[in-house]
Amino acid sequence: MRKVVYLSLLTGLLFLFSSCYHTTKETVNEYNIIPLPNQLITKDGRFKLTDKVSVVTADCSPEVQNIADSLITRIQNISGITLQSSKQAHTDLPAIRFLTVEGMPKEGYKLSIMPNEIALTASQPNGFYYGLQTIYQLLPPAIYGKELTKQQDWSLPAVEIEDAPCFAYRGLMLDVCRHFSSIDYIYKFIDMLAMHKMNTFHWHLTDDQGWRIEIKKYPKLTEVGSKRKETLVDYYYVNWPQVFDGKEHGGYYTQEQIKDVVAYAASKYITVIPEIEMPGHAIAAIASYSELSCTPDTTYDVTGTWGIFKQVYCPKEETFQFLEGVLDEVIELFPSSYIHIGGDECPKNAWKDCAHCQSLIKQLGLKEDITPNTVDGKKHTKEEKLQSYFVTRMEKYLNSKGRNIIGWDEILEGGLAPNATVMSWRGVQGGINAAKSGHDAIMTPSLYAYLDQYQEEPETAPTTIGGYNTLKKTYSYNPIPEDTDEATKEHIIGIQGNIWTEYMQNDERRDYQAFPRAIALAETGWTWNVNKNWANFCQRMVEDFERMDAMNVKACRSFFDTYINTRVYNDTLKVILESFYPNAKIRYTLDGSIPTAKSPLYTAPFVWEGNVNLKAAAFKGNKIQGKVTEKKLYSNFIAGKQYTTAPKCGWMSGDIFSENDVLGADTTTLGLTNGKRGNIASLTPWVAFKLNEKCNNELVFTIDLEKTATISAVTFGTLYNPAFRILPASAVNVEVSPDGKEYHPIAQASYTREYPEQGRKAFTDTVKFTPTETRYVKVILKSGGTLKNGIVCRKDTPDEIIPSDMYVDEIEIY
Length: 814
Known about the structure:
Blueprint: H1 9-15, E1 40-48, E2 54-56, H2 62-79, E3 84-86, E4 95-100, E5 109-114, E6 117-122, H3 125-137, E7 155-163, E8 169-175, H4 183-195, E9 200-204, E10 206-207, E11 210-211, H5 220-223, E12 227-228, E13 249-250, H6 255-267, E14 271-278, H7 283-288, H8 317-333, E15 338-342, H9 349-352, H10 355-364, H11 382-400, E16 404-408, E17 421-424, H12 429-436, E18 441-443, H13 446-449, H14 471-475, H15 486-489, E19 492-499, H16 507-514, H17 517-526, H18 534-550, E20 563-569, E21 572-578, E22 585-589, E23 612-620, E24 623-633, E25 643-646, E26 651-652, E27 687-690, E28 698-720, E29 731-737, E30 744-750, E31 761-782, E32 786-788, E33 801-803, E34 805-813
Parallel strand pairs: 2-3, 2-4, 4-6, 8-9, 8-19, 9-14, 14-15, 15-16, 16-17, 17-18, 18-19
Antiparallel strand pairs: 1-7, 5-6, 5-7, 10-11, 12-13, 20-21, 22-23, 23-24, 25-28, 26-27, 27-34, 28-31, 28-34, 29-30, 29-31, 32-33
């Protein structure tokens, strides 16, 4: 049972925004601690650091003594103040006491700061270490720098804190395979985890794009597998044929480097969990040793592109011997109780075509499920059960070495390995299913915890893998749904953020994608959900940006920008503006000019008229904070109105308010009438439709204007993106009806398109007609046709002719 002390209602109200107590005319007490302590009571007064302060460690273990000494060293290096180390306090001098008591949670601590004394109490070194992180956050942000900074108020506000984490597992995953991270960055990354009381660094070390760990028994893994000859240029689905940079990319960590990293992390109470992917995501290993595949006579290259590849480990004895040899060395390097074995995105094509695999399936007596599996409620194929055999066999080997496995939620397929912990990334259900079956689960759903997605306006942001996952959305996540039963809750042991690096070519890009959203996850992992508060988090984040600046962390700064969106209020589409920066005033213009301190002040959602170029910015005083945000908006007869489509939309790209944006949507949405046209940088906010013979290769959009109106034009946007099997509409028909029953045509048009040689292009078309009175309108968009050899990772036979999909951004009626 996890133990934690809840923040009292009174304390929560006192602390809702950075609590302020004037101790002098110049000094204000602030408590900008992240993650938020679970009990905090503000006090008057401050404790001042001087050369007379003693750090008292009576009856402390050598490990706790080291923690106390690290405080003395940091204060000396940054402030120039020399704290005195002592085993005994002097009654007439101020002191910082480290007090060991029994019975507190392993990671829990108490911190009492008074004007003449600081008392840090814990049972275990972990608790002392986390209490020390709180002390640092109560000091000026310069404490996180490297330069001597004497011109600061080196004092701490008085406070009483009793704290312990909500979850035992609080982690971040860093992928170093798609793009290699320097060893120096790994150390800085660990520092950021430690600063925010995270205790797990999940190191993704092997994948299709590179093998990053030295294995002495198999030298080709680094000689061959750590290098690729070139890397994909631009977003995966932009160019067909794909374009590459022609530059070799490589790198790996020596075993000595890994030992040093593991030791450094351990000094900060962070466990490093290695991930050795299997049975899929194995191209780098197969390129090094082709006998590991189902087609050993084929030569493979380490791939420079992204996605899922059908070449995977073949479940034969040579493969298991290889993986056992790899894991033997991994175990020697990583003392973690867990080893992550991946298990995700393993296509079964190669196994279906492999005589050995089919023979093994028969030998093992694996059969396709007749009834749904009790763990995930699905019927599994023989090949999926072969994956379960693969995972279970590797689990038994690791169990024999005293270790347990973690795998992505695909390890549920075919039956879960007996002692496995599930990392739930495809939503939350995989984790819930595992927990209900008595397995531990770590929640890392892509909708909230994937930090490779866009976090600011995609039209101006650097290229990412897609999606839209803002700081606010990340912070909103609750790993344990409210209706979860108590037995299931006990097996949801933690939360993790994932940083996949397809589009993070350097350390600065990694910082930008990871932070500040990883900090929101750190608070979710530590602070009980009942104590979380978005407005209060934003207040505290302002100072955390200063800390990151001191550490040279190049975090995304959209926190200080303004987000522009549209939503329906009382049946009317309105603009909504938001900045996360506390107490900032938002000013805007509708004519494309830069907002000034005299521009209209945003106070509430508002209606716009006509087509406008809205620009908005957050202000403090007369100064713009962050960037000026721009969005073109379109007003017409159907803006904000609901509609129906046939076929139904298959996918709608998200935005900051994405609660209604769902995969496989089967209800009407506002994605085609939200006043925003799509952009080609990130495919937002386009709506996808899968067209085929079943729907007559056309999209039928039907809408009720709600009252009779005179219309004379229809405008719509469609996309050309053959690398993603998308073609624009080839024709349009417009039909009208007075009653929604009998429709008659009033306009039609066909289009001959000019396509770019590479990349994608948005087409906005308008069909005009004689002014017509109507209440109901149908807009029928004809498919752009079929594609041949224009698809990446969609078909095993790329020359097959297939129907194109259609992406529509906005349909407007004037």
